[in-house]
Design goal:
Blueprint: H1 2-16, H2 19-35, H3 43-85, H4 101-114
């Protein structure tokens, strides 16, 4: 099941980031606004869009977060391999994601001074 979820999350993330998806959403908003006068700007008319957006947003956040988490892990794996391959690299930075913000900023300043 997790492989099927991964593939679905990848496809959805690609589709959601496309110009076609953006244009489809613009079209939906235009249609929804055009129907406002037909439904006399009623609470039901408003509820349709707010409910749909809430559910869609929640599902997309979950799928996109899954994709970003996997991409982040893959990038860390690749960077760790590069650090291992370079003999002079400071391997203590391989786990920089586990450092505090202050530690990261301190290391960045050190690197600037060394340049």
């Amino acid at each position: 099941m997790s492989e099927a979820f991964r593939r679905a999350a990848d496809r959805v993330a690609q589709w959601v980031g496309s110009p076609a998806f953006f244009l489809a959403n613009v079209l939906l908003v235009v249609v929804w606004l055009a129907l406002g006068p037909v439904f006399h700007w009623s609470d039901t008319w408003q509820l349709i869009v707010t409910s749909g957006l809430t559910v869609t947003t929640q599902l997309l956040v979950i799928l996109i977060q899954n994709t970003q988490n996997r991409d982040g892990r893959a990038i860390h794996l690749k960077l760790d391999e590069v650090l291992r391959a370079i003999g002079e690299a400071r391997t203590e930075l391989a786990r920089a994601e586990e450092m505090s913000e202050d530690e990261i900023e301190s290391r960045i300043e050190e690197m600037k001074e060394e340049s």
